[in-house]
Amino acid sequence: MLAQLTNTEKFTMMLTHGDFRTIHVSTHVSLKEACERVKKDRILHVIKLANEGCKALGIKEPRIAVAGLNPHAGEYDYRDPEGSPGGIFGDEEHKEIIPAVKAAQEQGINAIFPLAAALHELELINQELAQEKPDPYLGHATLHPGLISGGTGQSVIAAMSKLNWERRILPGESQDKLDRELKRVISAVENTNGDHKVKARQTFNRPPNEIPKNDLVQKLKKAAGNTNYDGMSYWADSALASQAGIPSILFGPAGHGAHAVDEWVSLASLVNCYESMKRFILDFD
Asked: Is residue 79 scored above 70 in pLDDT?
């Protein structure tokens, strides 16, 4: 009745108790008709409905068990591919139920595969960025995939996957440009074969740091021996200060291994920074 009132074509009954769900291949029909409904196509249809229904209820990776029809599931050894086609108590398991289960497994959406389209599109975008006019200090804009996650085990078809990537923004690039790149990646995944769903969002945006000519910045440059400023590829909190109207640059000793286990700075460079900062401060007198 509810299906008729809502014009729903694909439906079946679901009983729930705690974390357990029961979905019927046959519902409110005679025992004879219930047995007649045990067909591969019908069983596969209900398995798909069970999977979709559980996901709609918030179960990300449903685990679906399919019951047999006959006593002891017909006494068919489903682990033996060369086993007898007929069971002691019936052959519906062998002819209809097990083939439906195998078909469902084969049609399972491996959520890892569509990421190949996303990675390919990201590579194309990166190649295009390399052809654009570089920033005089920062060079070209770049992006790189950082994390791929998904699946619960090596032998289990992954029901979901997640790809994180980082986009290095240059001064002058617009949010609209970033949005178009994101839509390209979404479309690439959506256009791959399969019945998968795609969701994407920008988690956060940190602005590039670029400041106009400033007396204090020039003063520090003079104190450091008129060394030319260079662009840095990484992001720093100085960008937030610049965005708030406080002219900010990065100035510190040279070294290697930032945020790594072995992180070090040059002693000579450290001393040079100390002397430069001292001259910068004393020059205010």
From this structure: no
- What domain range is 30 assigned to? 2-106
List the structure tokens of 128. Answer: 């295009």
- pLDDT confidence of residue 184: 96
Mean predicted lDDT score pLDDT of the chain:
84
Q: Are 25 and 97 found together in one domain?
A: yes
Selection from 255, 252, 212, 209 nearest residue 233 by Cα: 209
Residue 205 within any structural domain of the chain = no
Residue 205 identity: N
- Structural element, H or E, at residue 162: strand 161-168
Number of H helices, E strands in the chain: 10, 6
Tell me the H-state helices in 57-114. Answer: 92, 98-106
Examine residue 199 and state whether it is found in any structural domain, yes or no: no
CA–CA separation, 120 vs 221, rounded Å? 43
**233-238 LR contacts (CB < 8 Å, sep 24+):** 233/138, 233/139, 233/168, 234/258, 235/206, 235/208, 235/209, 236/209, 238/209
Kindly report the pTM of this predicted structure.
0.56
Domain count, the chain: 3
Q: Which two tokens stand for residue 86?
A: 């007929």
Q: pLDDT digits over 83-127, tens only? A: 455 567 788 888 888 888 877 776 766 778 889 999 999 999 999
- Of 157, 190, 223, which residue sits at a domain end? 190
Here the tokens at position 84 are 């007898």
Q: Please, which pLDDT band fits residue 206 given cuts at 50, 70 and 90? A: confident
| pLDDT at site 85 | 54
